[in-house]
Amino acid sequence: MTALMLSNVNKSFGNVHVLKDITLEVEEGEFVVFVGPSGCGKSTLLRVIAGLEDASSGEINIGGQQVNLVPPSKRGIAMVFQSYALYPHLSVRGNMTLALKQEKQSKAMIEERVSIASRMLNLEPYLDRYPSELSGGQRQRVAIGRAIVRKPKLFLFDEPLSNLDAALRMNTRIEIANLHRALDASMIYVTHDQTEAMTLADKIVVLRDGRVEQIGSPMELYNNPANQFVAGFLGSPSMNFLPEGLLGDGGQNTIGIRPEDLFLADDGPLAARVSHVEKLGGDTNVIAKVHDQSVTARLFGQHAISEGQELRFTYAAEKAYRFDADGQRLR
Ligand SMILES: Nc1ncnc2c1ncn2[C@@H]1O[C@H](COP(=O)(O)OP(=O)(O)OP(=O)(O)O)[C@@H](O)[C@H]1O
Q1: Which of 192, 208, 230 is the C-terminal boundary of a domain?
Q2: Which of 27, 32, 154, 233 has its CA 20 to 30 A from that of 274?
Q3: Best of 44, 45, 205 to mutate for ligand 1, by most ligand atoms within 8 A of CB?
Q4: Strand partners for 9
């Protein structure tokens, strides 16, 4: 069954058209990530799905039911916000049980659900603490616990990890992946962070300026981007784009080469002058100028390369992407 279906959803604030004809599906049990640059409409789309904003037109279907006119609390969804949005005057247990109490669920059922969720999230020692007595990571786990106990048909996460430091982000990312596996729930997750998108998603939806640019599995999008925007958006460091003319091919198109597909070669076609080197230990990122174009090469291992050095790079022809003047992929 389909957990969520959006058909031609539009949203305008006054005369600002923010979401443009969004059509997509989330299958039951699927983990779908929305990515895109700041302001492209990710949060607005999530809020329209949750019912916190009304769609201006189009249809929203959750678990087989059209929900355009159904209030948020009746949509069978639970949302986890970046800001956690916990009630400061309620304990962890109080925060986790509030919605169930409001739904007048039985005491035994509430106990059982809190017990299962707090065990899953390692929150058992903290049930009687208040949010102010918890770390950022613990607060985020409470916010997730509060969503889990409601057994929603669909989980919505709005940049849940962006307030955490790098190490905690990684741990929490792994916890969310484990949680998804354990709950077998349908989840939609908004993020800026492409590592989160690539590692968590069954399916990524790339948005740009309120439109869907491409939908696919992380590897489909990485290996087969439909256009220059998607090619440049996924991958870190980003894909290099060079005018075809620079590579001696004479055409007017743009050639895309990923940093990991550039290699040092004395007779390589790309003559470059190194402008910056990032030594990461396992890898070395070399940022260099080819004529006036900046390119980044990600070389495996450690290299004695320094600023100002002249190098030549090569690449395998089958690893090069071609885009026309409008940024559409040429095959
Ligand atoms: N209530 C509102 N009234 C008017 N414009 C709004 C409102 N909410 C959002 N917008 C506009 O809609 C666009 C999309 O905003 P949204 O917050 O959905 O983007 P986003 O992709 O989530 O961005 P970010 O990654 O920066 O959080 C922006 O141009 C924003 O200014």
Answers
A1: 230
A2: 233
A3: 44
A4: 22
Query: Where is 283: in which H helix or E strand?
Result: strand 283-290
In this prediction, residues 41-49 reach a mean pLDDT of: 96
| Pair 84, 107: CB distance under 8 Å | no
* 8 A C-beta contact, residue 180 and residue 187: yes
- What ipTM score was computed for the predicted complex, to two decimals? 0.96
Mean pLDDT of the chain: 93
Together in a domain, 284 and 152: no
Domains in the chain: how many in total? 2
Q: Considering the chain, what percentage of its residues have pLDDT values greater than 90?
A: 75
Give the global pTM: 0.91
Q: Residue of the nearest CA to atom 30 in ligand 1?
A: 39
Ligand 1 pocket test, pick from 10, 17, 18, 205 with the greatest ligand atom count within 8 Å of Cβ, gives 18
Q: What is the pLDDT of residue 249?
A: 65
The helix-helix angle for 107-120 and 136-148 (nearest 10°) equals: 140
* 255 Cα: distance to centroid of ligand 1 (angstroms): 33
pLDDT tens for 73-101 read: 899 999 888 877 899 999 999 999 998 99
Residues 249 and 220 in one domain: no
Work out the angle between the directed axes of helices 136-148 and 92-102 (0-180°, nearest 10): 20
Q: What are phi and psi of 87, to 5 degrees?
A: -85, 115
Band (193; pLDDT cuts 50, 70, 90): confident
Can you give the CATH number for the domain in which 198 is found? 3.40.50.300
Same domain, 277 and 294: yes
Same domain, 203 and 265: no
Q: What is the pLDDT of residue 82?
A: 80
Same domain? 286 vs 321: yes
d(C-alpha 267, C-alpha 247), whole Å: 14
Partners of 17 in beta bridges: 12
Q: What is the pLDDT of residues 239-270, one digit of tens each?
A: 999 998 877 767 789 999 999 999 999 999 99
Residues 214, 285 share a domain: no
Pair of tokens at residue 166: 């790098």
